[in-house]
Structures are given as structure tokens and as C-alpha cells.
């Protein structure tokens, strides 16, 4: 057990046994729909590739994540885990994880900033040799507060767009002192998790939180990266009128040629029924936009951190703030307009009170990539220098092949002649 002031999850609960049982029920349901992790877990149980390794994790601790954690623990690892967002932890799932003999969970829903970072410190006190992060807070804490551990860390994995952005900036400054796989950037993550996962889960969480329809609404999507593309596509599929805002000219042009209106946020805000931010950057919706937003607008964030909507400015402008319904904070302006912020501006698909995160099948793919990347660090960690690394393509393909096999889908293979043709430069017209 950690010696920090922050104890494991079960010491925070009134009825740990009941919580464990409910958490286990959620995990078992999810695992029925996770064929990739099921296959990898069977392999890891036999080969125990992680014997002798300690894995420190900062993740969204809910049922799907928990199955990744148990897959690594069943492969022999000692795992310590905490949350990567104060509102995305499911306490019952955290308790179920903590019951595993190889897992200590510090994840607790609703902690304040101080306790959030205390829990990260508690994980680090286990002296991890591998890190698995969602947002890069653990990597940052190790470098800032525990540089003595870096020589014993084999490497890490980072799941999110925001986390990879932070890591690349850290790497560019020469400050990243161990290798980290950019799991977010691999095709099995971007093409499915970011597009389908974020698109479906963000819209579902907003709809369930508000009990409102998408049909006929003007939905402004801030950012047209993979997550923004998914949100825009799914909203249009539910008969919303979609407007995209962008700062990158090629993405803006792509959105335009895919049929969406493209406008500056200052213009789009005037007619918005819903604004969903997906940029990973701060101050996307600010004071100038609050001044023109219509009464009743919904403001939701599908980026990692709660900085995309300027809540400080909104709070200063509001004459009254109250909870309109669970997960919806209404900010009333002096002119009577009500601007509604979902999930405190945090990641709406995980932080809203009834949010469940990405669909199970989607996360099975992403967590499969995480699992094989951890295996790669154990088997070939010496081959990677400090810095950000792309996931080896053969690992990404391995996960895709497991998924296809589980679905009973067969595909063609290149013949020797075709392979030679593709690999050659001397076949002209």
C-alpha cells in the first residue's frame, strides 16, 4: 500500500463489497463484447510476459478500461491505477479492480484538484517500470517530481490526442526522458476510437443528459480533427444542421468539401443550439461568444481537459448560476439568456452523470493496441530511445486481424507477384 495520505478506493467507500459486486457486473458485461482483449488475455495468462514489471496507470476508470487493467495484471504485472479525470471514475469499478491481488486502485470520482494529484502521487510511489497514461498527467508528474525513477522506466503509452500533443511538445523541448508510444496516432485508434467512439458517445451523453433531440438543431463542432469529424458525421446522421469551426485551412477545406458549413466561431455562435468542442486547446468558446449565444444553448466539451469553454469568464458574466438538471449548469445572463454547460465543461462522454464513455467494441480495439504496446516495451524496450514513438505497424495490424477473425471476416492476401510489384521501383509502363 502507498504511504501517501491518499488511500486506495475501498477506504473511501461505505460498502466496498456491494461496490465490488456491481463493478464486477459491469466489467463482465463489457468483456463479453471485447474479443480482442479476450484473446490477448488468454495469451498473457499463459506466457506471463509482465512478470516482474509494475505498471502505473492514469486512465478513465470504468468497465472497459478495467478489463485492460485486468488483462495486464493477469499477464503478471503489478498494477497501480488512478483516474485521469475527476468525474470519469466509476467507484464500483474502481473497487472491483482493487480486489484483484495484483491491482491497487486509487481512482475516486469527484475528487478536487489536490486529491486528484495526490492519487497520481500514490500510484507513482509504487515505482512503475511502465506507464500507461490518458492525458499525460502521470508522465509529467514523474518528470517533475520523481526524476530518480526515470532510469528504471522502460517506457510508456499515451492514449489521447491531448496527451500526445503535450508529449510531442515535451519531446521537442528535449524534456521527455523515456520512450512513449503515441497510441492515439495509430490507425486502429484514430479511425475508430476518435471518429466512431467520440462521435457516438459524445452525442449520446448530451442527449441522455438533456433529454433533447438532435433533429433540426444547429450543432457547431469546434475542430475538424478525427474527433470533430466523428461528432460532425454522427450529428448530421441524426438530422442536425452542422457547422464546423477551424483554425487549420486544410481541415476547414475538408469540412467544406464534405458538405458542412464552415464559419468563424464568432459567427457560428449566433445561431448555435449546441456547441461541441473537440480541439484539445483552450479558450475556444469565450466572452465574445457568450455575448451572442442564443438563449438555451448547450455547451459541451469532447476534448480531454476542461479548458475549451472559458468558464471563468462565463461565471463573471452570469448574474445567476444554478443546476438546471443533473449534469447541466445554467448560467443566466443579465438579459435573461440561459447558457447551459454540460458536465462542468469536462469530457462530456465520460464526466456527465449518466455518461458511459465510448462504445465497448470501439474501446476493445484501442485497449488492444495499448496491451500489445506494453508487451512490445517488455520484449523490445531497449530498441526505443527517449521520446515519442509511433506504434509499430505490425502491432496495429495484429489487433485488426484479431478483430476480423472474431467477426468471422476473411480478407484477401497479396500474392508473391503482387508483393514483388509493390516493393519494386523498376516496373514502368
Largest sheet, in brief, is: 8 strands, mixed
Q: Total helix count?
A: 17
- Low-confidence segments, ≥5 residues, pLDDT <50? none
CATH class of the largest domain: Alpha Beta
Gyration radius, to the nearest Å? 22 Å
User: What is the total tally of β strands?
Assistant: 15
Supply the CATH superfamily name of the largest domain: Adenosylhomocysteinase-like
Spatial arrangement of strands, main beta sheet: 9-8-7-10-11-14-13-12
Could you walk me through the main structural features you see in this protein, from its secondary elements to its overall organization?
The protein is α/β, with parallel strands linked by helices and 429 residues long. It has two domains: 9-189 and 358-406, Adenosylhomocysteinase-like (Rossmann fold), CATH 3.40.50; 197-351, NAD(P)-binding Rossmann-like Domain (Rossmann fold, 3-Layer(aba) Sandwich). Helix content is 44%, strand content 15%. The protein has 17 helices and 15 strands. The chain has helices spanning 16-31, 35-47, 63-74, 91-98, 113-124, 137-145, 161-172, 187-210, 226-237, 249-257, 265-268, 287-290, 311-317, 348-351, 360-380, 393-406, 416-423, and strands at 54-59, 78-83, 103-105, 130-133, 155-158, 179-182, 218-222, 241-245, 261-262, 274-277, 298-301, 320-325, 328-332, 338-342, 387-389. Strands 9-8-7-10-11-14-13-12 form an eight-stranded mixed sheet, covered by helices on one side. Strand 1, helix 3 and strand 2 (78-83) form a beta-alpha-beta unit. Helix 15 (360-380) packs across helix 16 (393-406). The longest helix has 24 residues, at 187-210. It is globular and about 65 Å long. The mean pLDDT is 96.
